[in-house]
């Protein structure tokens, strides 16, 4: 008896030691994913430690302490980790040193193209137009190296939100014209280089209020297909991501903007319809067409003056939690793409990255720089959550 007590004591002590590498729940053999299967059927989107830490900090700073129990639960929701700068690749390394269960898929957003966010200002990136070699060697190659070095870990990637959609609808803007070749070359390079057995990829396709317009479906799908084919039609591309950092409802009918004067020109009045319509166009164009949809902040509808308003929409609430039960054949999963509580852009009119969309009447103010935490906004998302936490 004495022996077993001391073993127990030792075991307790060992589990309390902070410096031990924690790998006990990780897979013990190589993960094999493929673009022909829905990874979210067998894997759970991982609740990463960065969002957990942001939420834990927010819980400490709540203006309304009665929200504490509910607020704490937000940190357990699976969400995507944004690798939005070369320096932030470190976040991936840090995350991989934590204890990620074998059946969890780590969601990452690849987001650092040269001339990023060409039609807006709020998320302009660190690489200038023309810095494609830095994108390849200092960003994509480095990430690919890390993913290769972790063959037992499953990864789901969202590829470059807004980039290819901007080339369809905002090509009249000089910045997008200048960015075009870098976006196409960069996304193709990302798809080719990150095409690894433990990875599935979803190329960003905007949302129904963007490429869902009748006239945009075909050029949008062809734009994605061109890049996918230039990458050699990589096997791990599963399809598209939609509504990333967006506000559209999944299946609201009639759709939120169905009464708008131009509604007749857009049949993709919700994301479900968008995935069906754009999915058909993708199939014709020769691009995989399964989808993941961001439901992180889409609980409340009727908030935007216009469909294209994207910045810190006032009155929004956390939406449906990540799940592969979507009821739609082409929709692999609802995911949390944008980490709710992080800003879409600053409302400071004197900031270099101030975009007038963040000054709209329907945009929450004050708001910090894109990606930074907005405590008051987080509390609003929580209070307006559907389902409630
Ligand atoms: C920002 C990124 C940030 C991401 C997630 C984007 O709008 O530009 O810096 O990581 O949102 O919050």
From TrEMBL:
<dbReference type="GO" id="GO:0004553">
    <property type="term" value="F:hydrolase activity, hydrolyzing O-glycosyl compounds"/>
</dbReference>
<dbReference type="InterPro" id="IPR016288">
    <property type="entry name" value="Beta_cellobiohydrolase"/>
</dbReference>
<feature type="signal peptide">
    <location>
        <begin position="1"/>
        <end position="16"/>
    </location>
</feature>
<feature type="binding site">
    <location>
        <position position="338"/>
    </location>
    <ligand>
        <name>substrate</name>
    </ligand>
</feature>
<protein>
    <recommendedName>
        <fullName>Glucanase</fullName>
        <ecNumber>3.2.1.-</ecNumber>
    </recommendedName>
</protein>
<keyword id="KW-0732">Signal</keyword>
<comment type="similarity">
    <text>Belongs to the glycosyl hydrolase family 6.</text>
</comment>
<feature type="active site" description="Proton acceptor">
    <location>
        <position position="344"/>
    </location>
</feature>
<feature type="binding site">
    <location>
        <position position="82"/>
    </location>
    <ligand>
        <name>substrate</name>
    </ligand>
</feature>
<feature type="binding site">
    <location>
        <position position="210"/>
    </location>
    <ligand>
        <name>substrate</name>
    </ligand>
</feature>
<feature type="active site">
    <location>
        <position position="117"/>
    </location>
</feature>
<keyword id="KW-0119">Carbohydrate metabolism</keyword>
<dbReference type="InterPro" id="IPR036434">
    <property type="entry name" value="Beta_cellobiohydrolase_sf"/>
</dbReference>
<feature type="binding site">
    <location>
        <position position="84"/>
    </location>
    <ligand>
        <name>substrate</name>
    </ligand>
</feature>
<keyword id="KW-0136">Cellulose degradation</keyword>
<dbReference type="Pfam" id="PF01341">
    <property type="entry name" value="Glyco_hydro_6"/>
</dbReference>
<feature type="binding site">
    <location>
        <position position="310"/>
    </location>
    <ligand>
        <name>substrate</name>
    </ligand>
</feature>
<keyword id="KW-0378">Hydrolase</keyword>
<keyword id="KW-0624">Polysaccharide degradation</keyword>
<feature type="binding site">
    <location>
        <position position="342"/>
    </location>
    <ligand>
        <name>substrate</name>
    </ligand>
</feature>
<dbReference type="InterPro" id="IPR001524">
    <property type="entry name" value="Glyco_hydro_6_CS"/>
</dbReference>
<dbReference type="GO" id="GO:0030245">
    <property type="term" value="P:cellulose catabolic process"/>
</dbReference>
<keyword id="KW-0326">Glycosidase</keyword>
<feature type="active site" description="Proton donor">
    <location>
        <position position="162"/>
    </location>
</feature>
<feature type="binding site">
    <location>
        <position position="207"/>
    </location>
    <ligand>
        <name>substrate</name>
    </ligand>
</feature>
């Amino acid at each position: 008896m004495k022996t077993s007590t001391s073993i127990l004591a030792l075991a307790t002590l060992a589990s309390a030691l902070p410096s031990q590498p924690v790998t006990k729940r990780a897979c013990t053999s190589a993960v094999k994913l493929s673009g022909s299967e829905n990874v979210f059927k067998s894997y759970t989107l991982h609740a990463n430690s960065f969002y957990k830490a942001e939420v834990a900090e927010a819980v400490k700073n709540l203006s309304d302490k009665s929200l504490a129990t509910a607020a704490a639960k937000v940190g357990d929701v699976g969400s995507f980790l944004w690798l939005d700068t070369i320096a932030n690749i470190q976040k991936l390394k840090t995350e991989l040193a934590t204890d990620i269960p074998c059946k969890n898929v780590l969601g990452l957003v690849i987001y650092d193209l040269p001339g990023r966010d060409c039609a807006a200002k709020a998320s302009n990136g660190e690489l200038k137009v023309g810095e494609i070699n830095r994108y390849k060697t200092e960003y994509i190659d480095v990430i690919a190296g890390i993913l290769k070095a972790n063959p037992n870990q499953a990864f789901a990637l969202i590829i470059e939100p807004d980039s290819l959609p901007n080339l369809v609808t905002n090509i009249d803007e000089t910045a997008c014209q200048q960015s075009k070749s870098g976006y196409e070359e960069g996304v193709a390079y990302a798809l080719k280089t990150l095409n690894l057995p433990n990875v599935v990829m979803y190329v960003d396709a905007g949302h129904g209020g963007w490429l869902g317009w009748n006239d945009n479906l075909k050029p949008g799908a062809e734009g994605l297909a061109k890049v996918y084919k230039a990458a050699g039609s990589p096997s791990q591309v599963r399809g598209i991501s939609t509504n990333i950092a967006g506000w559209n409802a999944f299946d609201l009918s009639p759709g939120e903007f169905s009464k708008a004067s131009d509604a007749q020109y857009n049949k993709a009045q919700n994301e479900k319809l968008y995935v069906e319509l754009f999915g058909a166009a993708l199939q014709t164009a020769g691009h995989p067409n399964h989808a993941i949809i961001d439901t992180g902040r889409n609980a409340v509808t009727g908030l935007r003056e216009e469909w294209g308003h994207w910045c810190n929409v006032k009155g929004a609430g956390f939406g449906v939690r990540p799940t592969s039960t979507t009821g739609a054949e082409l929709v692999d999963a609802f995911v949390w793409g944008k980490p709710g509580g992080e800003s879409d852009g600053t409302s400071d009119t004197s900031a270099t990255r101030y975009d007038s969309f963040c000054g709209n009447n329907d945009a929450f103010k004050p708001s910090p720089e894109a990606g930074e935490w907005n405590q008051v906004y987080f509390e609003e998302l929580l209070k307006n959550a559907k389902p409630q936490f």
